[in-house]
C-alpha cells in the first residue's frame, strides 16, 4: 500500500475516477458526520486492508465527501461506511457497521459468501457484503461503433432475458458462456434470421439475486443495487472488470449485425426494500434523500409493490438518473431504455402526481439522449395509469390496452370488436390527440410479466405453485383461454386451435399500426407451465428451450413471414413525418362485416373486416441459372435469396389495397369481398390465412394464390389478409445498398 498521503480530492465527478497518479473518490451524504473509505485487496477479502476516515474539515464540500488516494489502479475494490444518527422517525438510517456500495460505482464485486440479510441484522457485514470496483473506461477500442438510432417506423422489438436466452442445455452455447453476454452474442444470427431489429434486455444493472422468496433467486433482475454497473453474474469471466468489456463487446457485435440494444431500467425502487430490508447503499448514505417517505418520515412510501420508492424528482436523485442514462449511452453505446413503472417518475417528494415532472423533462430534453429510444411503462403499482397521457413529446408507451383488448377479442369476449378495431389502427382513441407518429404505441400481447403466448392459449388459470407462495402471487386477470383443456394435451383438435390462436395473436401484433414487441420464445411456443410470475425461476420454467424450434417450426416460419410483411411498409421521407391521424386519412380505411360496408359493432359481434391502402416495397431479385437461361423472378418479403447468380436487383414500389378478415367466432363465416377494378387482372391474392397449415398459412404477395370468388369463407377463429395492387413502379436498387 502506498505511503503517499491521501489528499482532499475533488467533489466532482461523483464516484471513483481514475486520474494520473491515483483515484479520486466522491460520494453524497447530507447528514453523515463521518464517512470512511474502505480499501480491499480483492473481491473475496473479508477485511479491509486500509480504512481512510474522511475528516469533514478537509474532505467535505457542501454534502459531498471526497478524497484523492494516490497509486490506486483500476480493479481496486472499495466501499464506504457512513456514521450518523440512527433515527428512523426522522428518516435517518445510519449504521456504521454496514458496508455500503458507491451509488456511482461502475462495477460491483460480489463475494462467494455474499449474504443479503447480514445487511439487515445488527452487526458488521464486511466479510459478506458487495463492494464497488474502480474502473477505467478509456482503453476500450470501440472501432468506430456508435448507437444505431434506427427509426421506430423500422423497429421490431424482441424482449429477452440475458441468462434465460442461452441457459438451456439445448442452446448449443458452451457451458462457460451459457447465460452470459458472450453467450447472447452467439445467438445474433438467430435474431437476424427471425427479422427483429432490436432486443430489449430485462434488467442488466447489478441487482441482488438474493432478493427473492426463501430459497429462490431474483431471476428477472428488478432489484437494482447499482445504476451504473452491469450485472456481474452475466459475465462469462470471473475477473471483476472483465464484465465491462464483455458487455461492450456484446453491444458492438449487435450493432455490427444491425441490431439495437434497449435496456429495461428500474429507476423506481432499489433492492433495499422496506424498513425490514438490508442497508446496502442508498439507505445508509442518505435515506431521506433517495426515497419517498410517508408523512412523519418513519415509513417508506411504496408505490412499486417492492417496499420502497425512489425519490426521482429530488435534485440529487434526478442527477443520478440523468448521469446513469448518459453513462449507458456515451460509454456503453446502448440504443434505448424501457422505463419500468415509469409513472413513478411523475411523483413528487410527497408522492403526489406532478403535471410536469422535472426528471422526465430532463431526460427528454437532454441533447446527449436526443437520438435514444425512450419507452415508458406508463403506470405504477399504486393506481396511476398514464397510457395515452404520459408526459413529453417523444416517449413511446407500452400499450397495455392493446394487450387486453386483443386478448378479449380473440378469447371471444362480448363487446370487444370496437376496441380491437382501434388497436389495429394504432389506437387513435388513445394517442390521436397528441398528433404523434403511428409508432407511439408499443403493441404487445405478452411480456416477461404474465403468461407466455403458448400459456395464454393453454391455461385458464395461473399455476405458480413452484414459486412457493401457494399460488397467491401473480395476476388472476389473464384474459386467457385454454382452448378446451387446461395445460399440455395430446388432443390434436385442441392443439390445432391453439396453433391457430397463436398465429392470430401474432397477426394482430405485427400488422397493426404501432411498434411491435415480441416476447422471447413466443415464436416457438415457449411455455412456463402456466406460471405467470416467474420472477424467481432461474430454471427450465423460464429458459428458452431451443428444441422447440424444430417442434414448432411452423409457428417460427409464420412469425418470420409476418415480420417481413411488417417491414414491407414503404417509409418515405415525407411519410416518416406523418402523424397517426394523417396516416389513417391516407389509408382510406373502410369497415365491413360479412357484408360489405356493414360492420357489426354490437356487443355480440365477434367478427370484423376492413379495407385500406398501404404503401409498400417488394424486393424483386432476378437470377440466372447458367449461361443462356432466362431470368427468373424471385420475390422475397424483405429477405434475399441465396440461390443463383443475380443479374439484376430491383424493387417494386407501389400502393397496395389490403383486405383483412377477423373471425373470432367459433363457426365459419362467409365474407363478401370488395370488387377489384378491371385493370387489376390479378385480383385479390391470399397472403395470410391462419386456419391453413404451413406453408399455406402465409405467402409472399407475388407467390400468393389468386382468389377468384366474390366471397371468402373464413374458418372459425381465424384471420385472413388479402392483397391486390393499385399502382406499382419498379426501380433499380443502388449498388451501395
Topology, please?
Elements: E1 15-19, E2 22-28, E3 34-40, E4 50-54, H1 56-59, E5 60-61, E6 64-70, E7 77-83, E8 86-87, E9 92-93, E10 107-109, E11 131-133, E12 157-160, H2 162-166, H3 181-185, H4 188-194, E13 198-201, H5 242-256, E14 260-265, H6 282-290, H7 315-330, E15 336-339, H8 358-365, E16 373-376, E17 396-398, H9 400-411, H10 417-424, H11 428-431, E18 441-443, H12 453-456, H13 492-511, E19 515-519, H14 548-551, H15 553-567, H16 573-576, H17 580-587, E20 590-592, E21 607-624, E22 632-636, E23 645-663, E24 669-672, E25 684-689, E26 706-707, E27 711-714, E28 718-732
Parallel strand pairs: 12-13, 12-19, 13-14, 14-15, 15-16, 16-17, 17-18, 18-19
Antiparallel strand pairs: 1-2, 2-6, 3-4, 3-7, 5-6, 7-11, 8-9, 10-11, 20-21, 21-22, 21-23, 23-28, 24-27, 25-26, 25-28
Helix pairs in contact: 7-8, 9-10, 13-15
Mind explaining what this structure looks like?
- By secondary structure, the protein is α/β, with parallel strands linked by helices.
- The strands form 6 sheets. An 8-stranded parallel barrel has the order 12-13-14-15-16-17-18-19. Strands 20, 21, 22, 23, 25, 26 and 28 form a 7-stranded antiparallel beta sheet that branches. Strands 4-3-7-11-10 form a 5-stranded antiparallel beta sheet.
- Helix 7 (about 315-330) packs parallel to helix 8.
- Mean pLDDT is about 90; it is low at about 620-650.
Amino acid at each position: 500500500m502506498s505511503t503517499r498521503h491521501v489528499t482532499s480530492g475533488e467533489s466532482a465527478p461523483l464516484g471513483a475516477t481514475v486520474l494520473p497518479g491515483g483515484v479520486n473518490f466522491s460520494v453524497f451524504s447530507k447528514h453523515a458526520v463521518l464517512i470512511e473509505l474502505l480499501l480491499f485487496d480483492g473481491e473475496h477479502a473479508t477485511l479491509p486492508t486500509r480504512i481512510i476516515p474522511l475528516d469533514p474539515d478537509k474532505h467535505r464540500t457542501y454534502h459531498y465527501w471526497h478524497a484523492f488516494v494516490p497509486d490506486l489502479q483500476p480493479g481496486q475494490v472499495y466501499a464506504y461506511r457512513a456514521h450518523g444518527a440512527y433515527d428512523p422517525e426522522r428518516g435517518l438510517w445510519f449504521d456504521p457497521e454496514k458496508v455500503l456500495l458507491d451509488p456511482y460505482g461502475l462495477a460491483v464485486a460480489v463475494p462467494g459468501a455474499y449474504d443479503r440479510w447480514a445487511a439487515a441484522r445488527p452487526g458488521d457485514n464486511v466479510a459478506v457484503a458487495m463492494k464497488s470496483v474502480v474502473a477505467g473506461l478509456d482503453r476500450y477500442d470501440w472501432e468506430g461503433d456508435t448507437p444505431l438510432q434506427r427509426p421506430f417506423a423500422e423497429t421490431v422489438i424482441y424482449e429477452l432475458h440475458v441468462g434465460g436466452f442461452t441457459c438451456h442445455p439445448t442452446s448449443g452455447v458452451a457451458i462457460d458462456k451459457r447465460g452470459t453476454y458472450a453467450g447472447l452474442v452467439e445467438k445474433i444470427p438467430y435474431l437476424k434470421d427471425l427479422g427483429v431489429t432490436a432486443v430489449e434486455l430485462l434488467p442488466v444493472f447489478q441487482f441482488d439475486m438474493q432478493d427473492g422468496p426463501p430459497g429462490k433467486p431474483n431471476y428477472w433482475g428488478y432489484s437494482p443495487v447499482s445504476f451504473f454497473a452491469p450485472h456481474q453474474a452475466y459475465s462469462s469471466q470471473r475477473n471483476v472488470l472483465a464484465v465491462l468489456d464483455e458487455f461492450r463487446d456484446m453491444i458492438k457485435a449487435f450493432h455490427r449485425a444491425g441490431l439495437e440494444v434497449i435496456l429495461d431500467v428500474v429507476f423506481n425502487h432499489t433492492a433495499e426494500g422496506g424498513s425490514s430490508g438490508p442497508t446496502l447503499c442508498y439507505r445508509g448514505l442518505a435515506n431521506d434523500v433517495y426515497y419517498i417517505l410517508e408523512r412523519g418520515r418513519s415509513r417508506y412510501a411504496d408505490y412499486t409493490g417492492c417496499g420502497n420508492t425512489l425519490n426521482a424528482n429530488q435534485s440529487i436523485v434526478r442527477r443520478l438518473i440523468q448521469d446513469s442514462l448518459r453513462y449507458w449511452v456515451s460509454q456503453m453505446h446502448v440504443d434505448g431504455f424501457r422505463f419500468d413503472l415509469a409513472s413513478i417518475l411523475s411523483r413528487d417528494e410527497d408522492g403526489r402526481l406532478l403535471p410536469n415532472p422535472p426528471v422526465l423533462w430532463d431526460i427528454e430534453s437532454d441533447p446527449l439522449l436526443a437520438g435514444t429510444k425512450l419507452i415508458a411503462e406508463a403506470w405504477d403499482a399504486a393506481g396511476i395509469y398514464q397510457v395515452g397521457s404520459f408526459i413529453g413529446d417523444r416517449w413511446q408507451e407500452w400499450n397495455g390496452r392493446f394487450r387486453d383488448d386483443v386478448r378479449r377479442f380473440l378469447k371471444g369476449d362480448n363487446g370487444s370488436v370496437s376496441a380491437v378495431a382501434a388497436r389495429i389502427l394504432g389506437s387513435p382513441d388513445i394517442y390521436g390527440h397528441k398528433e404523434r407518429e403511428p409508432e407511439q404505441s408499443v403493441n404487445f400481447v405478452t411480456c416477461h410479466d404474465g403468461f407466455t403466448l403458448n400459456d395464454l392459449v393453454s391455461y385458464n388459470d395461473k399455476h405458480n405453485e413452484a414459486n412457493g407462495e401457494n399460488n397467491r402471487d401473480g395476476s388472476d386477470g389473464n384474459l386467457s383461454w385454454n382452448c378446451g383443456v387446461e395445460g399440455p394435451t395430446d388432443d390434436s383438435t385442441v392443439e390445432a386451435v391453439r396453433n391457430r390462436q397463436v398465429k392470430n395473436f401474432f397477426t394482430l401484433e405485427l400488422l397493426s399500426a404501432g411498434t411491435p414487441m415480441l416476447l422471447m420464445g413466443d415464436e416457438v411456443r415457449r411455455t412456463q407451465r402456466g406460471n405467470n410470475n416467474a420472477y424467481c425461476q432461474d430454471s427450465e420454467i423460464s429458459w428458452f428451450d431451443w428444441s422447440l424450434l424444430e417442434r414448432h417450426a411452423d409457428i417460427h416460419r409464420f412469425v418470420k413471414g409476418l415480420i417481413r410483411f411488417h417491414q414491407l411498409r414503404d417509409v418515405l421521407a415525407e411519410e416518416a413525418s406523418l402523424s397517426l391521424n394523417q396516416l389513417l386519412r391516407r389509408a382510406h380505411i373502410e369497415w365491413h362485416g360479412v357484408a360489405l360496408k356493414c360492420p357489426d359493432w354490437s356487443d355480440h359481434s365477434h367478427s370484423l373486416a376492413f379495407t385500406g391502402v398501404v404503401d409498400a416495397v417488394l424486393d424483386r431479385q432476378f437470377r440466372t441459372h447458367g449461361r443462356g437461361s432466362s431470368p427468373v423472378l424471385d420475390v422475397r418479403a424483405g429477405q434475399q435469396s441465396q440461390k443463383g447468380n443475380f443479374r439484376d436487383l430491383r424493387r417494386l414500389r407501389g400502393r397496395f389495397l389490403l383486405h383483412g378478415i377477423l373471425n373470432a367466432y367459433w363457426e365459419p363465416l362467409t365474407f363478401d369481398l370488395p370488387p377489384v377494378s378491371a385493370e387489376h387482372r390479378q385480383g385479390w391474392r391470399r397472403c395470410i390465412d391462419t386456419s391453413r397449415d404451413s406453408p399455406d398459412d402465409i405467402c409472399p404477395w407475388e407467390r400468393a394464390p389468386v382468389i377468384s370468388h366474390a366471397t371468402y369463407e373464413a374458418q372459425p377463429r381465424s384471420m385472413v389478409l388479402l392483397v391486390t395492387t393499385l399502382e406499382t413502379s419498379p426501380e433499380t436498387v443502388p449498388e451501395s445498398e
